[in-house]
């Protein structure tokens, strides 16, 4: 049985010129809030382990449950956004996220901390597609469309940078609880600002239904894929991990023919036929693998080869995120001048080239490696801006939430699988340079997908 939900009208009134920047900042703050703790919490794990006296195999659930909650529920969040309304979902998601922050921050044992992390992940899974869909709907024209996606990309990079740098400082001076509690007033203000500044959701234009069967299959399939990949990266490709991965693929395989027969599917077949969206998803998955080769493999390389501490490694990798933040600023201008396909293809070529250089100079003096990693960050900045503008901006208004969720799902699935492959290779004795070359090859596959599938110039947004 499919519960009926009221669908909002596809169009939204344009924002007055003087309200554009406040709205862009609100949407960027949503992305910042849901991504900041994803990296900051990692720096607090040793202190959490000491206070709760838990073993590492239990402590890893603080990270894993958050990742599973985001990646597993993104598609459902995107469809609910299309049915329920963007502003409603953003405000509700920020409230859920705030509750999760409070529960985690005041947790007296590990269990409520894990509950808080699940609530944070669920809030993020519903907030991310709503924020991206709002950006595409409220800024239909250039230069503002590219500009707002650049602001959102900058917020994401800033969140990663702040999480990596500030997480350790907050934990050292205030304690791990303040990683959560310090964000609570910011999240509350963001929820109020979203309710005040974002335009009301359009009135309903008819009845639609939530595809419950599709939601169960999609959520179960994504959860199984991400969990199986995560376990493979931690323990190797054990039979149980491979079985979970196979189960995830099986559930997603069942989803495709089911959606063709459902009147109101969770994932419309037309979305899977969109060249812009499919090219963006494939390129983003490839870029996520390249990113994992830089950050995850690079972190291990810096600690094992150059003997850096975890804190020193974070400081060395922080310029990578800073470089991506800087290069995302002119991305809108480049996209308007050359088109998304050219910008993405060139950026991926530069990413593949610099990552290849990192692999070839493995063992070289640290300044050389840091300079090449910084160059990779400069190359990566425009990619997210161009892909979101192309894949989400060109989706039909009533499907932008689902398109945003499908796009974001690729980075969680692609990132989890690539990390599992890279760590398995390292565990089998592969050299760091060899693994990083595989990351460069993944970026190369993204180039092929971009050139083969993405239209040369964006079609006008529906």
Automatic annotation (TrEMBL):
The keyword Transmembrane helix applies. GO terms for molecular function: transmembrane transporter activity. It comes from the Bacteria. It is found in: Cell membrane. One of its GO terms (cellular component) is plasma membrane. It is a multi-pass membrane protein. Pfam families: MFS_1. CDD domains: MFS_MMR_MDR_like (cd17321). Keywords: Cell membrane, Membrane, Transmembrane, Transmembrane helix, Transport. InterPro entries: MFS, MFS_dom, MFS_trans_sf. PANTHER family: BLR6921 PROTEIN, MAJOR FACILITATOR SUPERFAMILY MULTIDRUG TRANSPORTER MFSC. This is Uncharacterized protein. It comes from Micromonospora endophytica. The lineage of its organism: Bacteria, Bacillati, Actinomycetota, Actinomycetes, Micromonosporales.
């Amino acid at each position: 049985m499919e519960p009926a939900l009221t669908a909002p009208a596809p169009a939204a009134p344009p924002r007055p010129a003087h309200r554009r920047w406040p709205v862009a900042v609100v949407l960027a703050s949503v992305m910042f809030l849901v991504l900041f703790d994803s990296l900051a919490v990692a720096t607090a794990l040793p202190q959490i382990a000491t206070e709760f006296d838990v073993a590492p195999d239990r402590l890893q659930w603080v990270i894993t449950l958050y990742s599973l909650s985001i990646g597993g529920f993104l598609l459902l969040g995107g469809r609910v956004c299309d049915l329920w309304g963007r502003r409603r979902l953003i405000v509700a998601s920020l409230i859920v996220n705030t509750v999760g922050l409070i529960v985690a921050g005041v947790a007296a044992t590990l269990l409520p901390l894990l509950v808080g992390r699940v609530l944070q992940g669920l809030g993020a899974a519903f907030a991310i597609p709503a924020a991206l869909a709002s950006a595409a709907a409220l800024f239909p024209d250039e230069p503002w469309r590219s500009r707002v996606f650049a602001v959102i990309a900058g917020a994401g990079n800033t969140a990663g940078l702040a999480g990596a740098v500030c997480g350790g400082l907050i934990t050292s001076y205030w304690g791990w609880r303040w990683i959560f509690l310090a964000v609570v007033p910011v999240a509350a203000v963001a929820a109020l600002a979203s309710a005040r500044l974002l335009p009301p959701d359009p009135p309903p234009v008819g009845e639609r239904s939530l595809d419950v069967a599709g939601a169960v299959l999609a959520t179960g399939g994504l959860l199984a894929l991400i969990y199986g990949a995560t376990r493979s990266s931690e323990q190797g490709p054990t039979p149980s991990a491979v079985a979970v991965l196979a189960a995830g693929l099986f559930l997603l395989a069942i989803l495709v023919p089911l959606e063709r027969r459902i009147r109101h599917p969770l994932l419309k077949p037309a979305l899977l036929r969109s060249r812009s969206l499919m090219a963006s998803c494939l390129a983003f998955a490839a870029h996520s693998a390249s990113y994992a080769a830089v950050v995850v493999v690079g972190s291990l390389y810096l600690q094992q080869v150059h003997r850096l501490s975890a804190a020193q490694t974070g400081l060395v990798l922080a310029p990578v995120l800073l470089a991506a933040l800087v290069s995302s600023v002119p991305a809108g201008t480049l996209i308007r001048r050359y088109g998304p396909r050219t910008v993405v293809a060139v950026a991926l070529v530069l990413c593949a080239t610099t990552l290849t250089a990192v692999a070839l100079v493995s063992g070289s003096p640290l300044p050389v490696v840091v300079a090449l990693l910084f160059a990779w960050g400069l190359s990566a900045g425009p990619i997210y801006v161009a892909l979101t503008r192309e894949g989400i901006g060109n989706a039909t208004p009533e499907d932008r939430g689902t398109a945003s969720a499908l796009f974001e799902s690729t980075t969680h699935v692609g990132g989890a699988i690539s990390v599992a492959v890279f760590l398995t290779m390292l565990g089998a004795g592969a050299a760091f340079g060899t693994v990083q070359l595989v990351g460069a090859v993944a970026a190369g596959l993204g180039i092929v997908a971009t050139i083969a599938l993405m239209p040369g110039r964006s079609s006008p947004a529906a």
